[in-house]
Specification:
alpha/beta, Rossmann fold, Arc Repressor Mutant, subunit A, 6-stranded mixed beta sheet, 8 helices, 13 strands, about 40% helix
């Protein structure tokens, strides 16, 4: 039977991180350093337990190893992003695989960062804090709610409604939509979007932006064409009329 390990902090105000790692030494290292950085740490050793804990504990961020027994990290990420209650949780993928294709697949599935083993515990902590700043309650725009025609975006609640119907967005999709709306009328390059939405400088990863734009358009329904493609450059959010 798989064992769930819960390391609870004493302060209810601590931000909670779910560590999903099958190697005990690596899991212990992460738990130790994250606890010392004042995070509340919850741990799982396989993909199925990770999905259970993510739904139950509602962590602020998930560190997800790619090579897991049974249900691998990519499939776990896919399922997390498909469920409404976990789709907004940022995911940092952690793996010994350094090939570019693995990074691209992980980012296209909705991962927000990608760290290759061996890693520096201090770097992990700094990256987690950066991600939480980007997706935290104080991170979005000065606007609280943006509305136009049938679109309504609540920046504080991280919610989208299309023609009065709630639409589920991942944390990355919401951040991307926010960036496009705030830059309405301006062309935003793929490199700029990678820097601001993913906070990363991965070269050659423009396909990741394109994939998320395609998914975002699908969710916007009849308003999909408000996101215009500027060939060879990037994208522009433009309200018709």
């Amino acid at each position: 039977m798989n064992q769930l390990i819960l390391c609870r902090g004493l302060s209810v105000s601590k931000e909670k991180v779910l560590v999903v790692e099958d190697h005990k030494d690596t899991r212990d290292l992460l738990e130790y350093n994250l606890s010392n950085a004042d995070f509340d740490v919850v741990s799982a050793s396989d993909g199925h337990d990770a999905l259970t804990l993510a739904s139950k504990e509602k962590p602020h961020l998930i560190i997800l190893d790619l090579m897991l027994p049974g249900l691998d990290g990519l499939e776990v990420c896919r399922r997390l992003k498909q469920k409404i209650e976990t789709s907004q949780i940022p995911v940092m993928m952690l793996t010994a695989k350094g090939e570019e294709v693995d990074r691209i697949v992980g980012l296209e599935l909705g991962a927000d960062d990608y760290v290759v083993k061996p890693f520096s515990p201090r770097e992990i902590v700094l990256r987690i804090k950066a991600i939480l700043r980007r997706f935290g309650p104080d991170s979005p725009s000065k606007l609280k709610v943006w509305r136009h025609a049938g679109l309504s975006v609540d920046f504080e609640a991280h919610s989208l409604e299309v023609d009065n119907e709630p639409i589920s967005l991942t944390a990355t999709e919401f951040k991307l939509l926010t960036e496009l709306i705030l830059g309405s009328g301006k062309v935003q390059t793929r490199d700029h979007l990678l820097d601001t939405v993913w906070d990363t400088h991965f070269e050659g990863y423009s396909r990741t932006v394109d994939t998320h734009i395609r998914r975002l358009r699908q969710k916007l329904g009849q308003y999909a064409d408000w996101i215009e493609t500027v060939r060879g450059v990037g994208y522009k959010f433009r309200i018709p009329g």
